[in-house]
Amino acid sequence: MQFLVYILAYPILWLISILPFRIFYWFSDFVYFIIYRVVGYRKKVVRENLALTLPHLSAVERKDIEKKFYKHMCDMFLEMIKTMTISPEEMEKRFVVTNIEVLNEYAKKGKSIVLVASHYASWEWLLTINKRMAFRGIGVYKKIANPYFDKLIRRIRSKYDAELVETKKTIPMMAQNQRDGILSLYGLASDQSPKLDRIFHSMKFMGIEVPVHTGAEMLAKKYDLSVVFIKVKKVARGYYEATIIPIADNPKEYGNFEVTEKYLRQVEKQILEAPEYYLWTHKRWKHKVE
Fold this sequence. Notes:
By secondary structure, the chain is of the alpha/beta class. It is 46% helix and 19% strand. It is built from ten helices and nine strands. It has helices spanning 2-17, 21-39, 43-53, 59-82, 88-94, 101-108, 147-158, 170-180, 215-223, 258-273, and strands spanning 95-97, 113-117, 136-141, 162-166, 184-189, 202-205, 208-211, 226-236, 239-248. A seven-stranded mixed β-sheet has the order 1-9-8-2-5-3-4. The protein has a two-stranded antiparallel sheet with strand order 6-7. Helix 2 (21-39) packs across helix 4 (59-82) and helix 3 (43-53) packs across helix 4 (59-82). The protein starts with a helix and ends in a 17-residue tail after the last helix. The model has no long low-confidence stretch (mean pLDDT 91).
């Protein structure tokens, strides 16, 4: 059954990916109409999240953010499909890293890195940085249930020298790379809600006390990895700009959860600048700490 789903879906995904950008975004507008106007996908969750985290805004202002968010969400997920056939040259034009030299400075020091990102703007196109740096680029991810789609995702990433590793295999890989002296950059998106059995700490995020992911900080301290945040900005439809922001060169010098705190404050700042580009459909604040 999984293979049948794959062979039926793949031609459709491929056809979408080869559409010229103008038609591609017309199609995204149509998808927006269906998702937002007809289906109303997770509208209740989005509205609750916006009301909870942006109480200083009026209902009219939050409604405007809501509409812009759904339009962006449709663009973003279709852009993930576009990755199937877009050329690396075209991708580099559309996803610009303003200060890649920051990463190269760490490479000169012989320091591997934990790069923490957020579910903001376009985290899928972050993979383009692998062509521009001296590190072995590794993305930590949750394996897709359908093995055929999982293999497809891996194949797409390989165009940009990006390697995926499942969460449970991350620690053994880090240990092996350290033993072998392989300079590596590990990418993690750590802003979403952790599973209940993996909660070690809570802190305020967008003004609400919630459980937080602390794995990036723990791994950085364990393996002496520098921590950087990548701030992504949407500058136009289909165009993004990313900036590397150092968080902690030597994480062991920081107290418990201070690195995580610094990371979350960067994410908050990013969201408040343009909230419509954050992933509001996720139930991020469902486990509020009273």
